[in-house]
Amino acid sequence: MNDLNKLSNKRIGLYMRKEKKSENFSTGYGRLQWLRCELGEHRGEIELYIDEYDSSSKLKELINDIRSEKIEVLMIWSVNDIEEFIFPSIAVGCYLRQISIISFCESLTGLNKVVAKYSRAF
């Protein structure tokens, strides 16, 4: 992920939703550890927003932190972790505040097209 090189000293918000109820992020394996490994020597702050399989409480907290510009970069595992009807609000909020969105699963070009689709009116 070449985009991670640009994140030095940035405040990152890392959002993930468990893919199943039994997914355990506390082991040394899995998606969260993979992203932590990718961030490796990152020198800035990393705020974790991890929702349970059937919850969106951390997503709501993330939206508030985007609005208050508590983070400078939003990192997600996949757009699919975010409800389809909520992602446009996140995309526009990030666009208006110049908060970059980086996805581990989607390419930057593809993700930028999705964000542009929702933020055209602005």
Descriptive report:
This protein is an alpha/beta fold. The chain has a single domain (2-119), classed as Rossmann fold, CATH 3.40.50.1390. Helix content is 34%, strand content 16%. It starts with 11 loop residues before the first strand and ends with a helix. The mean pLDDT is 84. This is Resolvase, N terminal domain. It comes from Clostridium gasigenes.
Computed structural class: alpha/beta
Mean pLDDT across every amino acid position = 84
Q: Which series of helices and strands comes N to C?
A: EHEHEHEH
Question: What's the name of the CATH homologous superfamily?
Answer: Resolvase, N-terminal catalytic domain
Distance between the termini: 29 Å
Approximately how much beta-strand content do the residues carry?
15-25%
- CATH topology group: Rossmann fold
**3D shape:** globular
What integer value in Å does the Rg equal?
14 Å
In the sheet with the most strands, the strands line up as: 2-1-3-4
User: Percent range for helical residues?
Assistant: 25-40%
**DSSP helix count?**
4
Which consecutive residue ranges, at least 5 long each, have pLDDT under 50?
none
Q: What's the CATH architecture name?
A: 3-Layer(aba) Sandwich
Protein name: Resolvase, N terminal domain
Q: What's a concise summary of this model?
A:
This is Resolvase, N terminal domain. By secondary structure, this protein is of the alpha/beta class.
